[in-house]
Amino acid sequence: xxxxxxxxxxxxxxxxxxxxxxxxxxxxxxxxxxxxxxxxxxxxxxxxxxxxxxxxxxxxxxxxxxxxxxxxxxxxxxxxxxxxxxxxxxxxxxxxxxxxxxxxxxxxxxxxxxxxxxxxxxxxxxxxxxxxxxxxxxxxxxxxxxxxxxxxxxxxxxxxxxxxxxxxxxxxxxxxxxxxxxxxxxxxxxxxxxxxxxxxxxxxxxxxxxxxxxxxxxxxxxxxxxxxxxxxxxxxxxxxxxxxxxxxxxxxxxxxxxxx
Length: 260
What we know:
Translation Initiation Factor IF3, Alpha-Beta Plaits
């Protein structure tokens, strides 16, 4: 009986040992995919690269405002609405898509006149503010996808009732395209420097271990590309000469390579 008991204990001890070793082996195998992760390479070189891209802007943006001052809010709104509708119609007739015309501000404000009181017996009382009416102001942004029309549009909206026109800017429908081009040139510049440095050091590039980019904002260069035209959709003063020029986008990158 004693021998049977001792044999059973040995048997279970062997089974437990096998299970334990199996679990240890499984854990080791699962950890193999993480071997080397988080280990910083000790042999590296770092290089910088610069790239720039030029292109003529394909979008012109600007904003305009209409305002109306009347004795009542309703009268001011009615007049301002008639003006904004006339400007909007002009823009759509000129080929501007409605999705590129966006109201950015609408306000109604009371207007006051300062009235000085009449002096009597040498005493001059202070003046007071007297309500004179209400001003309605609506500001709209416009995106023109044909930059050649910019001059005519600026003049045309003024002739249709816009009281303020401002913020003319030239940009790109796809701004990332230029940035991608500049970045690609910067990376190629850095890779060329790394290859030459590795050659001089007598080592080989293994892999990229870090990358950093510092983007440069678009820079506007006027090139005198006048866009003045003689004809306009509605009779208006001569359109201003608008120089579209070109924009430059830059990219500065820093790349670190592991070497061996």
